[in-house]
Amino acid sequence: MITKEEAQRIVDKYHGSFSLLQREGTLEEKTAVLKWVADEANRKQLKLAGLE
Predict the structure, then answer these.
(1) Euclidean distance between CA atoms 44 and 11, whole angstroms
(2) Is the pLDDT of residue 25 over 80?
(3) What's the half-sphere exposure (Cβ side, CA atoms, 13 Å) at 26?
(4) Are the C-beta atoms of residues 21 and 14 closer than 8 Å to each other?
(5) For residue 42, what are the CA distances in angstroms to 13, 23, 47?
(6) Would you list the DSSP string of 2-28?
(7) Which pLDDT band holds residue 42 (cuts at 50, 70, 90)?
(8) What is the Cα–Cα distance from 49 to 4, expressed in whole angstroms?
(9) Please, how many CA atoms are within 13 Å of residue 49, restricted to the half-sphere of its CB?
(10) What's the mean pLDDT when you consider all of the chain?
(11) Which pick of 2, 43, 45, 50 has the fewest CB atoms within 10 Å?
(12) What is the H or E stretch that residue 31 is in?
């Protein structure tokens, strides 16, 4: 599982630009960042619903 710091390092590499990440990033970088975003969204939804 990717950590927040790893995802932030990748995002910072592309100056916080999602379109730049999509155009110039590797498949592994794109997958890692989107996986982290999805995991965080799921974690926050579970917490909000009181299931965590």
Answers:
(1) 21
(2) yes
(3) 5
(4) yes
(5) 25, 26, 9
(6) --HHHHHHHHHHTTT-HHHHHHHS-HH
(7) very high
(8) 23
(9) 8
(10) 95
(11) 50
(12) helix 27-49
